[in-house]
Amino acid sequence: MNQILQEALNVHYITLSFTLEMTEDTILPENKVSAIRGGIGEMLLRANCIRDRKCECCYFASECMIHHTMYSQFEKKPRFVTTGESIGYVIECEDYQREFREGDTLVFRLILFGKTVVYFNLFLQAVHMLGMNGLGKQESHFQIRNIGNTSGEPILDGVDVHMEKYQVMQLGDYVGHRLKTWKGNVFSVKMIFETPLTVKYNGEFLREYSMDAIVRSVKRRIYMLDCFEGIDGEEAFDQNYPLPVIRQQKVRRKEVKRFSSRKQSSMYLKGIQGEIELEQMEPDTLELLLAGELIHIGKNTSFGFGRYRVEW
């Protein structure tokens, strides 16, 4: 791995796999990330807000637990960021089942980045409260069966929390692990987008995949995480990477409906989903794209958008 990228990938992270057991027959939305994210946020507000959610006039805003978890601030503001962005976590859930019976399980992954890593206990409490209060419009009740760490070992087993198994890793570790199966003479790969990608390129949202837009988005996301943690990633952000050639692509437009409790209205998040067959893949570019697998790219990443995997 080239030294410039290696230093930029010193971002800390942990992957937490939550297994939820339904305590009643219920119906959940097809796309569950929005409901999980909104539910966690609501539980954090109920447990920690002391100013009736009037953030703009709260004297204690700088110490707010919700801001430290759901809306963490950058150590240094990226030059292109003009609005607040949720950068400290992503939620993944590709279980699209709707009908659940009592005893059925649902798995979702919570990936914490940078300084958000230390707030595991707040997220744990929020998910536990969410199970008691109910998830989604149907207020589906559940209990946490277990929580696995990045390697799949249990952090939570019953009522016991094993913090000695709380494995904090770095983004470079993830890329190194993925590269172990890479054969250096293989230059053809496939990118499969598991969730919609929303990226604005040359003033318009993508309607088909562009490798220039994707590579820029990965670099942007890594740089934002560097700024979030206070790492100097400017040089890696400005570095150019050889673009692989798109041999063919399959793409479709995708809309995901979500309900905003803050605005009390429904809205649609839009993007494209599909896969790309690539050739002439250079090792440096592959390393960059492998980092993008974990961190998600584009807009709406906190709702699970922008997740892909690379195959060869």
Helix and strand arrangement:
Layout (H helix, E strand, L loop, with lengths): L2 H6 L3 E11 L3 E2 L5 H16 L16 H5 L19 E4 L6 E2 L4 E9 L6 H14 L8 E7 L5 E4 L2 E2 L7 E2 H9 L9 E5 L6 E2 L2 E2 L5 H19 L4 H5 L6 E16 L4 E15 L3 H13 L12 E4 L1
Antiparallel strand pairs: 1-5, 1-6, 1-9, 2-4, 3-5, 6-7, 7-8, 10-14, 10-15, 11-12, 13-14
Order of helices and strands: HEEHHEEEHEEEEHEEEHHEEHE
The helix-and-strand class reads alpha+beta
Radius of gyration: 20 Å
Mean of pLDDT: 92
Outline the biggest β-sheet: 7 strands, antiparallel
Q: Helical element count?
A: 8
Strand percentage: 25-35%
Tell the overall outline. Answer: globular
Q: How far apart, in Å, are the first and last alpha carbons? A: 19 Å
Stretches where pLDDT is under 50 for at least 5 consecutive residues are none
Number of strands: 15
Helix-residue proportion: 25-40%
Features:
alpha+beta; seven-stranded antiparallel beta sheet; single chain; 312 residues
Structure, described:
By secondary structure, the chain is an alpha+beta fold. Helices cover 28% and strands 28% of the residues. It contains 8 helices and 15 strands. The strands form 4 sheets. Strands 1, 3, 5, 6, 7, 8 and 9 form a 7-stranded antiparallel sheet that branches. A hairpin with a 2-residue loop joins strand 11 (200-201) and strand 12 (204-205). Helix 2 packs across helix 4 (120-133) and helix 5 packs across helix 8 (283-295). The chain is globular. 36% of the residues are buried. The mean pLDDT is 92.
Describe the structure concisely:
Helices cover 28% and strands 28% of the residues. With 312 residues, it is of the alpha+beta class.
